[in-house]
Amino acid sequence: MSCAIGHDSAVPEDYLGVWQRTLLRLADGTEDRSTRVFWLQTGHSHADLRVPDPAPATPLAHAALAGFAGLTRVDGDRCQWHRFIDFHPDSPVDIGNMTFIHADEVHETALDNSYLEIWERLPASVGPVREQWLQAADNPRRRGCLLQAGDYFLFVADRPEPLAGADSLTSRLAGASAGEVTALLSCEFSLGRIRGASMPWEIQLSTLPGRAGKMLTAPGPDASDNWPDSVWAGLGALVPAGGWQTSPAPVLMPEESSL
User: Fold this and answer.
1) Using 50, 70 and 90 to split pLDDT, how confident is the model at 221?
2) 173 falls in which pLDDT band (50, 70, 90)?
3) First-to-final CA distance of the chain
4) Cis omega (within 30 of 0) for bond into 200
5) Could you tell me which residues come within 8 angstroms of residue 72 by beta carbon, excluding any fewer than 6 positions away?
6) Which end of the chain is more exposed for a tag (fewer CB within 10 A), N or C?
7) Is 247 helix (H, G, I), strand (E, B) or coil?
8) 175 in the Ramachandran plot: left (φ > 0), alpha (ψ -120 to 50) or beta?
9) Distance between CA atoms of 199 and 193, rounded to whole angstroms?
10) Residues 58-88: pLDDT tens digits?
């Protein structure tokens, strides 16, 4: 009989906060410094948002967006991001070797040295962290989460019908009807500030067009651990028919947890 691995395996405190990628360098020398990439890490969970600059202008171009959320496992200098919600359903296993240059800069290299990513921690993200996972009341397969680090939050909501199978998002979008395209792109990753923006809980970057500049929720700057169930139920742009319910974090099986 297998057993689940959950909140007994916290990541080291050095990882906590919001990290912005400042450089991606591939083995062939190709570099990317323009894509806006943010990784929010709590004690167990992560969420990652990647938006090209400029943002995609057409539905098919939205395949250039990326985002994922799940559980993080750290073993020595090696880190693995287990994805439970993913904008791209065919993403490969995500493991990197991590080298801390100092407290607020970490370099991630591929196990095969095919890439280098440089991450810098945002000062306003240093502080208390919180993670709350969600489940659609009308569809237990649909997950969401709200992660917080310091003054930042990252809200994630899977598509109303989570994608299964190994087909890429690009291949699914090709030839899809307008309604199918909308459904395929209805996956929300919204990053923002809790108090340090022009309004409380202001979204500043999102996979969904038109979400930037909106409020995630209306209660104001109060800590989310004081929110009633009714607030959690209505989070996001694509609220489930029965609302969201708070739920335990997903779990890893032993065969998934080894690096």
Assistant:
1) confident
2) very high
3) 21
4) no
5) 11, 15, 41, 44, 45, 46, 79, 80, 81, 82
6) N
7) strand
8) left
9) 9
10) 888 999 999 999 999 999 999 999 999 999 9
